[in-house]
């Protein structure tokens, strides 16, 4: 079980950046961005090429994040300036990224086993030896910094405008906000986080491959839904933390499955089934019960909520997908509504 926990923390924290990016676009901005399938391996490819060329590993990671932001900008410009459908814009960008990756690396994959990585570099600053535990500490530090910065940004006027764009675009536009610019900014930040995730994964695994992005979007959505359903809430700070924990939980479930002997080729099917199950939870009346159980840990409360004879049941769920009982407009992508009040920032 120790190996399962270590794997969950290492991979979960690496992929948490991607989950935060998907949360920003799908959940808060209401933009179904499919660029993620290309942005993740693009960040890895740019980082790998930079490391091979002798560039500092930390700078290489930043270049990977910037390349992801550039890909997000391409999708945003296609949608806002050329009026291309948002889903089609993401598909076009992801398709073009494949060629960019091949041109960048010069081949389908690039090994980094004989090169320095960013984890050893950061640990060297503090005189620490690279190990599983110290790598987790580095990842935890970077993740907490990213979570704090993202939480701070979403609490600023620009961040509130971005969240309001996803909640009610017509209303925020009537107040004089250029929603095209907020969408573009959101896509740049989100895909920058995804590119950062790819860059960190590349240096952790010791290679970059053009096929690294296959299935990562569904995995990120699963992490977001798990985090929001189990750990999260309507408050922004709790939601961000919940998504990070959801990413760790998801990777832990995969590691546990491997430990129990489940075939690795079945994992993507299991992930799709998990996402479908959680999306169906509102119609099954499960989400409302989970939300009601969170504040209370009493066994009696849990039994009462799960009882089929509970007179307080409504059967409508908590609004993970389009529940009209939650105030505000649902975005129809993953979650309920984007809270825009300053009181929800903490």
Automatic annotation (TrEMBL):
This is Putative ABC transport system permease protein. The chain crosses the membrane at residues 12-31, 58-77, 84-102, 122-150, 184-201, 207-227, 239-261, 267-286. It is a multi-pass membrane protein. Its main location: membrane. One of its GO terms (cellular component) is plasma membrane. It is found in: Cell membrane. One of its GO terms (molecular function) is transmembrane transporter activity. Keywords: Cell membrane, Membrane, Transmembrane, Transmembrane helix. Pfam families: BPD_transp_2 (PF02653).
